[in-house]
Amino acid sequence: MILTPIDWFALALVIIIGLPHGAFDAAISLSMISSKKKITRFTGILLSYLLLAVLVILVWKQFPEISLLIFLIISVMHFGMADFSAYPTNLKWPHIIAHGGIVAIWLPIVNKQEVMQLFSILTNSEAPLLWESLTILFIFWFISGILHLWETLRFKHHIVTLELFSLILLAYFAPPLVTFAVYFCFIHSRRHFTFVWGQLQQISTKKMIISSAVILSSSSWMLGGGLYWYLNLNMTASDAALQTIFIGLAALTVPHMMLIDLMFRPHSEKNKNTN
Length: 275
Hints:
Elements: H1 5-18, H2 25-31, H3 38-62, H4 64-86, H5 92-110, H6 112-123, H7 128-154, H8 158-173, H9 176-200, H10 206-232, H11 237-274
């Protein structure tokens, strides 16, 4: 797969704008620790985070097709939960699946030839099981989309309806990497920044929040650069970039999702209800 200039630009956006959206995870972890043994507990969380990321890479290396399928499914959940939190509606799970599935399910289906090349690079195979599974997932996404659309039109959630249609059309007409970059950088990451910044400002200083974000972002870029250099020794620049970015995103998304969706959101909701 040979990346075009616009593909490279899209990947650059993912690295510069999208990747740092998880850089607040250190500050988030600290914010949930009230114990006197703050440093010890934080160190334990950080090590667990890194070990889980490394484990994802090791598992991906042994079972790339299954790993990619699981990554797509958890991406639906993670993206969809962020979109639902931004504009809640009555039908929660159809909302989550409809929005979260645009880049993880709809995009591969409508751009199968191009995405098949990408998936073959990430899995080192034609990934037949993955595509069969995507066909089944597409049915769930379609049904969820119909239910979600009915609910948003019924209760006049115009912003939500417009966003859904706009992203569906973008995925249909734009290059796959462009669609992913637009959604990941300007919708998902922006919402994450807004949510986390609002929560952390109440319990932490701006200096600590920004410092932790800069340190983690810089560390991620350096590790990614090293991985790209290593992969580029044995494959083309395009293939090395795609493996570095998407496998790297998978490795970071798993611990990031567990921290945000399983711990921080419930923690924030609990504090909000208490106050």
